[in-house]
Design goal:
Layout lengths: L1 E5 L10 E3 L11 H13 L7 E8 L7 E6 L1 H23 L14 H9 E2 L2 E2 L1 E2 L2 H12 L12 H19 L3 H12 L2 E7 L2 H8 L11 H15 L6 H19 L6 H12 L6 H11 L5 H26 L5 H7 L1 H15 L3 H19 L10 H7 L4 H14 L7 H10 L6 H17 L8 H5 L7 E7 L12 H6 L7 E5 L15 H5 L4 H13 L4 H18 L6
Length: about 575
Amino acid sequence: MLNLTKFEDLFASDDATYEMPQYQRAYAWGDKQLDQLLIDLREQPLKKDYYLGHFLLERPDLNKRHYYVIDGQQRITTVAVFFSCLIEELQLRERNGEVLVDSDGSPVQPWRWEERYLVRLGMRRLRTVVADDEFFNRAFIQRLPNPQPDPARQSQKRLFHAQQVFKQAFAAETDTATLLRWAKLLATASVSAFEESDKVRATQIFAFQNDRGAKLTTLEKLKAYLMHRAYLDDSTNQATYTIAHVERFFSDIYALTEEIDLGEDTVLRYHNVAFGPTWEDAFENVKTGLRAAAEDAKAAWITSYCDSLRQSFKTVVEVTRRAAGHSHITGLLFLRSEDNWPLILKIQRHHGHDQALCESLYRLMEIVSFKMEFSTGDYRSHDFHSLAKHYTGDAVALRDTLREQAQNGFRWWWTFTQNFHDRLDGDHHYDRVTRYLLWQYENELRRKSPNSVPVSGADFLNVWQVKRWEGTLDHITPQNPDAVEYTKEFAKTRLHNLGNLALLMLGPNASKGNTMPQDCIPLFIESTYLADREIGKVLQKDNQWEEPHILARKQRIVDFAKAYWAVPAG
């Protein structure tokens, strides 16, 4: 049943409650959507309706006013966040002596919004997905001071950010009447609400809806399509059962997306490359699979596909965690992740029980990836996606193929290793790949030093965002030194040379600025990083950092790189 109504009327009944089903993605609004909402409220003409959008609601029990929000969950959650923050701001203004009155002079009572949109007689009006609901309760129902989101949940971080955006916007608006006008606009905003008690029909409707705020992802559309096909292709009158399976799988998938930064559609794309039967997109591959399945096996195909997709999301989480430790995967994710992920998914699917085997394959992939990045040739094409598409589990054959590619590249005419060496022996190395090389060099020094612990992938990739390692390179002899002018030849061949580059780390080494290295020897000597200390010892001995020192350091690093990225014997 379709109703054209006002947003506040969705909560008109005292017992009306709303809940986000687990198979839906969690809160997803960011600055783009939040800023647009605030712009809408500021610019909305007086006495003209504000349209908030479409809501699709599943009401499983007609005797209760409890609804699952199938479409519109981002908007309904944001409005609840809006009113929670507004109530807090208005209560603060009341405590400061302000009398709240509406435009017609009638008193404004914020507790009425509390009862309508947040909690009524101890009953929660809105519940998010289970994993975020406890945080939502603390932050927006109880409004506890400084509620901290779970760092592993991106959706909680987005909810917290939305709270900060609204709080700042409300605090900055000195005219309370303006805030009250915004509240009225949202409360009386026009909405179209479609209420459906049948899960299958609700699924069909959702399959053809668009989210006005945050655009539906390809993964969401695919989920709706799979649920829709479960209904259309059902030959056993068990469509509801199949749809419940899809819901369960996608509930797990959306929980996993909260632990990764890749983006759900990116993971879907990698999964499609690795496991899709054709090179077409995910939708076309699903259609191809369904067409090929027997009539009585289509439901089983749908559940099998969803399970496989869930496994890929789980693998991404596991691999990302492994990259934070000490694994060749770290390089694969830093260097050419777009090329590498599909084959990683395939290797993990076949050999995840044997991580030693996986690491041996990743080592060869890492050599290829590093040489591809650190070569002078214009190497654009790669075969890793094709390897992933056609790999069926023969690890010996894959190892032989990767060893050949690590030595010679992907095309017979490439001078792969020679071009790699030429680039190392060159004069200009000021780019992101050198950062990876210098990280590996630092760890080589640590492997040779007693009681030293290698720098983990987590520190290098800064996965915990603590910034122990800065994301840039530092010139040992600075680019723009004080009171020193370089010759053109030095600036061209030595300034950006590998021997004159170091990892820029936070702390003393990052604060030396344009100071000449001989004037800040203690910063190098006292560094916790062995590569810095190596530089410091040279400065301590010669009290200068000139061309011979740069070339000597470059040669040490080049010799290491040629040995470290050499193809291991079979």
